[in-house]
Amino acid sequence: MRARWIVGVLLLLLAGCTNSSTTENGRITLRFQSLAWQEESVTANKELVKEWNATHPGVKVEYVQGSWDSVHDQLLTAFEGGEAPDIIHDASDDLADFAYGGYLADLTGLLPQRLTSDIPQRSWETATFDGRVYGVPFLQEPRVLIANAEWLEKSGVRIPTPERPWSWAEFRQITEQLSGDGRYGVAWPLKEPVSATLNLSLSAGGQLFHRGADGKVTVRFEKADRTVPRTIHDQANTDHSASPTTLGSGGSDTLPGFFGGKYAMVPLGFSYRQQIAQQAPEGFRWQVLPAPAGADGLTQGVSPQTLSVAEDSPHKKEAAEFVDFLLQPKNMVRLALGDWMLPTGTEALKDPALRTAKDGWATGTALAPHLRPAPAQSVRGYPEWKDKVATPAFQEYYSGAIDLGELRKRLEDDGNPVLARYQR
User: Fold this and answer.
1) Which of 49, 60, 181, 218 is least buried, going by the fewest C-beta atoms within 10 A?
2) Pairing label, strands 209-211, 217-219
3) DSSP character for 363?
4) HSE of 289, CA atoms in CB hemisphere, 13 A
């Protein structure tokens, strides 16, 4: 009797160490933590959960609202406490430590062929670590130039297209041509300068992180890595064609000046179009232009939004089935429209709603084939390197406080020891 009691206590303790999905009266309940925050996106996610529950009586999904502001620390606490949601919404550049830490399920073999073949391999690479897939990349956003259409038309400059983009040198020349009388050709919002710089640097062939045969990563700030940061630095400090006051600002902070005619262009993530469409004054005409191209064309890095399954979930198969439901092509289009982003799925990208000229959708879909995994995607220790080394170094360089040689020294000499602590 005592032995049976001990076994019962152990089973209860083991149950307490798993995540919070439950089975009651033969019905499974899964928790789906979504980071959707825009009203349209939250509505789309909740509607899809409701549709799933109406058509899957054996598996109920509970919608849990998360926040991008605190997702990493919140998930880490949940993982360590055995309370992680079954289905996890995150971004691919946040997955590496969770994947290597054993907190996320390997989705290899759990996902249907329809889904694995619909999403390009270049997107799967953003969520693949040591050959295992720890998330499904489903939404992505390139960085584009949001331009004052009337200003550019009156200036007579050549308007770039995805077929004929500006080079980085031409972009610098044009922003200088557009500047003067207290107005600037561009406003760079670089409060968080690292991802923007590294992702755009792929167009010039920049790589920065180099993985050796032993698997260890080192930082090398080579010639191709300098094109984008030098352009930004020279616009702000030499040509005075970039507003010096926005270098420490977030993207939304630049919009009042943009609407007020102070800046001709603002480089922003694709999803900012929603704010612009909602906030632009009546009669204000804006357009979406591709980011400048370098030696590698329009290539740029992205960190797609992802859906993962917790390793501790006792219902991985059912969780993967819900992910497949969410990412049916028609549903992926709904999620993309709600977030004003691009779907990764090739079928979803064909949808006419994502190819209209209105609000620059067509420009975005034209950029989709050029999107690649962000340079830091699989680099362990990247968050610490970014916060302690790269962010202050780039901020000082862009403000003119240090030169290119000092920037290189900071990134390489200070950055490599930080990353070395995470090497396996």
Assistant:
1) 181
2) antiparallel
3) H
4) 23
